[in-house]
């Protein structure tokens, strides 16, 4: 990024521009949003917007990287925590993904709508697949350890777990009780609905 | 619809046009797809496409109604089945939603991407909310009946259940083993991952 782009203009820093852009992308669709739309939303001229951001794709990349980096860091943290067995690690990983979703709701929402139409989007999908496989590996270890049932295919289980978590972007509003939501997800996923 | 639109042209009937349109909407986004794009995909001129369909919105409406009608019919059928207790009804409803998703995968995929930008989309979201509430009512009845745990909020549970089911549109390919997928979803949701 050029010195001029980094410096920005009074009233808008990189973070606030990104925040407004992600909100706009989520509201009206990334493809349907032009840099002109974003400039209007920020109260800037169409040429002034380029003092803040090099391109629309750069904004998308920053947002999806924010979400993906947070998810990766959350899984890394679970992996680095000592004293957890494989079942506890899996449960902590699912709980951590709920916390990341709540903490980075706009970025995660945008990430989940990416369809792979550009190299940036394809790279994001590739990172999502890697994260799915990391969770699948945790499912496999927990099953081998006897902590969870062994009759479900690990990658399918991983996708259904993330599917349940990710679906919250559809209805979650800002400032939810993150612990209550994480409790509900882990209770449903690990303990099941049926009375024991 | 006019007589001319109903009659269509040789080589394309209403159903095949709808099928191609939904596939195209899912691939490149509804908003980003023009009637010209659809004509090209069908090998028609831009004016000939209007012999087949009155508008792009009409195609969207037909597709989301297909998905919503199938979901509604599935819940109606569960409600009309005699000899099921409330817990069995809920399990059958979740299983039925998996079957509908598999049987109507392109239409359900399109439905789930609708954001409410037009009256047609708002009507679809409203119908989705009504279906969420019907499932929530089944959750409530199953909890009152003692068939499922009572410590999870019914609407939250309903949303997480549909969230898990709906997330399958992200990775399911055509011709899956629908019974195996439905088994995995109901096992995870009702019995939970943890060993009993």
UniProtKB/TrEMBL annotation, chains A, B:
Coiled-coil segments on the chain, per record: none
Gene3D superfamilies tied to this protein: Homeodomain-like (1.10.10.60), Tetracycline Repressor, domain 2 (1.10.357.10)
Keyword vocabulary terms for this entry: DNA-binding, Transcription, Transcription regulation
DNA-binding region ranges: 34-53
Location of the HTH tetR-type domain: 11-71
A Pfam match: TetR_N
Name of this chain's protein: TetR/AcrR family transcriptional regulator
Lineage: Bacteria, Bacillati, Actinomycetota, Actinomycetes, Propionibacteriales
């Amino acid at each position: 990024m050029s010195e001029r782009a980094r410096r920005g203009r009074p009233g808008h820093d990189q973070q606030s521009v990104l925040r407004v852009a992600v909100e706009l992308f989520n509201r009206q669709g990334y493809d349907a949003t032009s840099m002109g739309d974003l400039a209007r939303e920020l109260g800037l001229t169409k040429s002034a917007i380029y003092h803040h951001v090099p391109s629309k794709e750069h904004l998308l990349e920053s947002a999806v990287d924010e979400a993906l980096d947070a998810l990766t860091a959350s899984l890394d943290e679970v992996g680095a925590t000592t004293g957890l067995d494989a079942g506890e690690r899996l449960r902590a990983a699912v709980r951590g993904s709920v916390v990341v979703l709540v903490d980075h709701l706009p970025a995660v929402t945008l990430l989940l709508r990416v369809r792979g139409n550009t190299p940036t989007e394809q790279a994001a999908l590739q990172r999502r697949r890697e994260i799915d496989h990391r969770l699948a590996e945790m499912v496999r270890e927990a099953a081998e350890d006897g902590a969870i049932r062994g009759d479900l295919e690990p990658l399918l289980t991983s996708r259904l777990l993330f599917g349940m978590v990710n679906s919250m972007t559809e209805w979650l509003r800002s400032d939810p009780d993150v612990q209550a939501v994480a409790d509900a997800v882990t209770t449903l996923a690990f303990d099941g609905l049926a009375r024991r």
